[in-house]
Amino acid sequence: MRWIALTICTLLFQGAASAGRIELKPSAIAPESGAVTLKDVADLEGPNALALADVVIIEDFDERAGGRAWVQLAIDDVRTALDARRVNWGRISLQGRHCTVRLAGALITQSSDDHVAPATRAPETVDLTGNSTVRTRIVSLLLRVYDVDSENLRVLFNEDDKSFLDLPDAGRRIEVQPASTGSSSRFAVVVWLYAGDQLLETRTMRIDLQVRRRVFVLSSELERGDAIRESHLRSEFMWLEPTGPAPVLSQDKAINSVARRRLTSGTVLRVDHLESPVVVRRGELVTIHCISGGVVVKTRARAQDDAREGELVEMRVDGRRKTFVARVVGAGRAIMNLDSTSSAALSDASNRKE
To answer: Which CATH number is associated with domain 278-352?
Structure first.
């Protein structure tokens, strides 16, 4: 048994030792020869990676720079050069995003001529038919997060990620996990790319997106505290960025709620615009359903404050000094569960204040 364990450990060690890692440097100095190789722009670890040290990534620095003193090298440039050498990605992992390659002693400055404003791009729907890629795997995740179909989701990826997004999952394992909430201004995902037992690359991407939903728009102006009626609303299908409070998606959730603040006509109704109406007023006599085990006793008590449905409010029976706490369940009605430790604790706390 010891011999078998030793053999397995030896094989595992040999496998680990033969693996290689290439990590792109944040910045590098261009060699005087004009050609930029892998060892110039990346840290290499392991024999498989060191064997690729002299692979040319940029054949002519001056031509690529176009008169500038620097070149922005993307990880996809490195992958393309290594693919030309038929690299076994099962034994090599590639990490990093960009490397700024500059001439020795040069400062990276950009004149107005260096910068060309990119054409304005807008989020687009993604066709999920055909081969599975990193792109389609990410979009499939987004469809689950926002609970929509592909026709109701538009996405905009970073142009620098295009080659990575187009990678098929054939011969690879792609794992995608969310790295932000569904209400973030830019949705973030982390992608892990595996081949066999090797991690090829990890990349975090932020995505602009729009979701089309049936929402409710105010057709008239409301003041704070105004009750919302069906006549105040019209439904529309709209493309929205999933930022901030969620839009109200059910008319039933809006009707009979009240405006939390002044709302203008044309406002897309969101959950933070609404609150439940006050159904119990301070000093009002309320019917209390007292529950203890299988017994229900009803009594009358006065509310010590205004309360909305679902809220706990302090109550007092006329002629008695002590108060208790009950949960409002509707206009003029509340429930006190004597089996609930939270209700008892709240009642005791309110009475200790006296």
So the answer is: 2.30.30.760
